[in-house]
């Protein structure tokens, strides 16, 4: 579980990161979760954007992505989700 200070720090790092995944009308699936897990192992901090044709609630999508990928939900702002998971082999981010 991340503290408020850690989430604030991760939000500042994520500000300049571009979304690398999109959730569309198909919603979330196992293949998307697998790709997110792989990206989190390499990058630790990623953004996921939700397209306008996605009919699911953005907070439900964010919770599902975080829980199924084992990541921490840092932020949901607009239609953008920020996820963090500490990498086992490629650790780059030192949390305060």
Automatic annotation (TrEMBL):
One MF annotation (Gene Ontology) recorded for this entry: RNA binding
All residue ranges annotated as the CRM domain in the record: 1-96
Coiled coil regions, renumbered to chain: none
Alphabetic keyword roster: RNA-binding
Pfam family, one: CRS1_YhbY
InterPro entries: RNA-binding_CRM (IPR001890), RNA-binding_domain (IPR051925), RNA-binding_YhbY (IPR017924), YhbY-like_sf (IPR035920)
Annotated signal sequence range: none
Transmembrane regions: none
Superkingdom to which the source organism belongs: Bacteria
PANTHER family documented for this protein: RNA-BINDING PROTEIN YHBY
Name the record gives this protein: Ribosome assembly RNA-binding protein YhbY
Protein source organism: Paenibacillus thiaminolyticus
Gene: yhbY
């Amino acid at each position: 579980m991340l503290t408020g200070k850690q989430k604030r720090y991760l939000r500042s790092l994520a500000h300049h990161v571009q979304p690398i995944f999109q959730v569309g009308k198909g919603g979330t699936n196992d293949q998307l979760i697998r790709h997110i897990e792989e990206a989190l192992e390499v990058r630790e901090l990623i953004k996921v954007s939700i397209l306008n044709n996605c009919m699911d609630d953005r907070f439900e999508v964010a919770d599902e992505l975080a829980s199924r990928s084992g990541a921490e939900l840092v932020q949901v702002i607009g239609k953008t989700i920020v996820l963090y998971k500490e990498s086992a082999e490629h650790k780059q981010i030192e949390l305060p």
